[in-house]
TrEMBL record:
Keywords: ATP-binding, Cell membrane, Ion transport, Iron, Iron transport, Membrane, Nucleotide-binding, Transport. Its main location: membrane. It is found in: Cell membrane. One of its GO terms (biological process) is iron ion transport. This is Iron complex transport system ATP-binding protein. The keyword Endoplasmic reticulum does not apply.
Length: 254
């Protein structure tokens, strides 16, 4: 389990997220939702040790992440940011970057590392681009390569910042399927997502934020029933049972 305890964090001394107490468990999907600028990315960055909080602690399996060596932490926690450039390297090499926390010095991949990279590329259907440069790919293809890198990193906790934004519907559904697969593999996936229907329909837990604080952190049903989504986003939200499995979908209107 990864647990954020009384976290307050922000930039240049200005608090952006306040009194955050939340934990994420393996084998589950958590969606973090909230209006633009409410602090979702700040929460992810803090949880994955990219941003040092002003106060509070983050506990991974009983140990503060600030006491865990970088390389060891990178074998447990990965973070895929929203804004990414396209470095001038091949797809294969980028996916291999996911194995860096496992390599010694000099960084020479072993058979196991190469096998992990092959498996990740196969799972995402990106083997065909293996030798292409990242910048030769479309945004959706690139996104899959970055997710391949995270897959190769093979961490228990995976933080994803808007993994489906800017993707066409086919790529969106593919990425959501991969996220469900990661859950089946026993991983904790924690993602910031603006598509509230996806958040409510595929997550085990939904964390709704407003102005830097957690409004509610509960099951999708409980979050829906609380009407807090309607209050925070100023929308109407209706649950409909759309498929045979009884999986609810959610329709939003003004
Ligand atoms: N590097 C930074 N330096 C200073 N302020 C920042 C920085 N990054 C974010 N902020 C500020 O912190 C606040 C929260 O930003 P954050 O990116 O966490 O929000 P968000 O909920 O993820 O937003 P969005 O949905 O628009 O991506 C914003 O007011 C933003 O301007």
């Amino acid at each position: 389990m990864i647990k954020l305890k009384d976290i307050t964090a922000g930039y240049n001394g200005i608090e952006v997220i306040k009194n955050i107490n939340i934990s994420f468990e393996k084998g589950s999907i958590t969606s973090i939702i909230g209006k633009n600028g409410c602090g979702k990315t700040t929460l992810l960055k803090t949880a994955s040790k990219l941003l040092k909080p002003f106060s509070g602690d983050i506990i991974l399996n009983g140990e503060s992440i600030y006491n865990i060596p970088e390389k060891k932490l990178a074998r447990k926690v990965s973070f895929l940011p929203q804004m990414r450039n396209a470095p001038n390297i091949s797809v294969y090499n980028l996916v291999m970057h996911g194995r860096f926390p496992y390599l010694g010095f000099p960084r020479i991949p072993q058979a196991e590392d190469r096998a992990m990279v092959e498996r990740a590329m196969k799972k995402l259907g990106i083997k065909k681009y293996k030798d292409k440069k990242l910048r030769e790919l479309s945004g959706g293809e690139r996104q899959k390569v970055y997710i391949g890198m995270v897959l190769a990193q093979d961490t228990d906790y995976i933080f994803l910042d808007e993994p489906t934004t800017y993707l066409d519907i086919n790529h969106q559904l593919e990425i959501l399927d991969i996220i469900k697969e990661l859950k089946r593999m026993g991983k904790a996936v924690i993602m910031v997502i603006h598509d509230l229907n996806s958040a409510l329909s595929i997550s085990d837990k939904v964390c709704l934020m407003d102005r830097g604080e957690i409004v509610i952190f509960d099951s999708p049903k409980a979050v829906y029933s609380s009407k807090e989504i309607e209050r925070v986003f100023q929308v109407k939200c209706e649950e409909v049972n759309m498929d045979k499995k009884g999986q609810s979908q959610y329709i939003f209107s003004i």
